[in-house]
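Protocol step 6 of 9: fold each sequence in the batch and record its structure tokens directly after the sequence line. For illustration, a two-sequence batch is reproduced in full.

Sequence one:
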Amino acid sequence: MQKLLWILVFSLLGCGAKEPEKVTLAINPWPGYELLYLAHEKGFLRGENLQIELMEVMSLADSQRAYLMGNAEGFASTMIEATQVASLGGEPVQVVLLTNYSSGGDVVLGQAGITSMKDLKGKLVGCEVGVLGIYILSRALALHGMSLADVNVINVEQADSFDMMNAGKIDAVVTYAPFMSKTMNIDGVHPLFSSLEVPGEIIDVVSFSQASIKNHPDLVPLLKSAWEKSLAQLEQYPEQSMAIMAKREGVSVQDYAESLKLLTLLPLAEQQKIKQNKQQLKAMGKALCQALNNIGSIESDCKHMDNIFN
């Protein structure tokens, strides 16, 4: 009889220790996304009823692909990738965090002897053609009176950008931190364009499917809380925090600290200011969607942009 009572007690205790539900967020190496990794390491992504797990991938294209294939309910990316998913057959997303602006962290790098974007006419340029890379290239060319028709574009994943430039197989490449640091160390390679030339235009976000937001009421509050805690952690314990984030990126703490200078992190208060101007935000989203239509990156009526911001 006593044995049966103990079994009953342990069974009841087990019922009380319910594991939180889990959702998956895909992230690739980028200085701004590392605060999400810091949040993971510090336990900020685990709530009483919900846990956000990270899926670590190599590139923006991989993050978007993880979402489209149903391997992740959300992903970190620029607004470009978030805008594209509906036209690529994925469930429309809602942007729940505006993490940062790129302030020099996205670049077009040219080989020695190529002194300006205009020198790329007829040259071979590598970029991730399905995602941010092609947009960056089109904007850089447009600012110099050119278009994608003026260059020969080849798809180059971020992990291959150094090898392609080092071997001289391409004349220029579109890349971003942390990958750009190694490529810029190649003799003669130098920037032809950076996101500083389009201030506030390249914004990074965290998006989740509309269904996951609806099914998990704790998701958005948990993510926002984790983001704010990570920013506080970075401010209060900069060396310890940057060591954690630099290790994941495979770079030195000094290099990671330098890469953080190439973007502008957005606390929740700043994000709220941006979101308050709903008409301007909607117009920005529609303009971006139309720009992606114009360069052939998507085919969309852009109606999904009306509800993309949570």
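Sequence two, same batch, same settings:
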Amino acid sequence: MNASATIRSAYVRASMMLEFQARLIVLFSSAIFMFAGIVDFPRIISKESPLFASIVFGPQVIHGFLFLFANAMLAISEQHKWYIPKISDPDWLGAFLNATGGFWFMMAGFFFFQKDELAAAAAAMVGSWAFLVRSLVRWYVVMEFC
């Protein structure tokens, strides 16, 4: 095996590890967000409690940040050069849109901390649209093979 083939195979293994690590970060951030969703059920913790915002909105901010970080890692790993985005690649576009959605859900958590419900609703709407467009891109790719 020549040197370039060795380097190429090492790069492929490293990029696969990066994708695995990013997906693992998404899994852990989803578990954190699940905790916030369960605690937000009525009568589990009072909305007047001083810890309510930290327990409910804190995990939302952490989840959004980790989702942003993991999907930014994926988007950068899809590019041949880190500074040139691959807009025509559905995998890159999906990772970018997921990172965008994660950012806006993180911002919604920050806005909820500040009790700015209108800004939080707008941020959650933008994040939801990013996830919707990402789902449509993935659906298009899947239907291309049917």
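Proceed to step 7 once all outputs are recorded. Observation for sequence two: Residues 3-144 form one domain.
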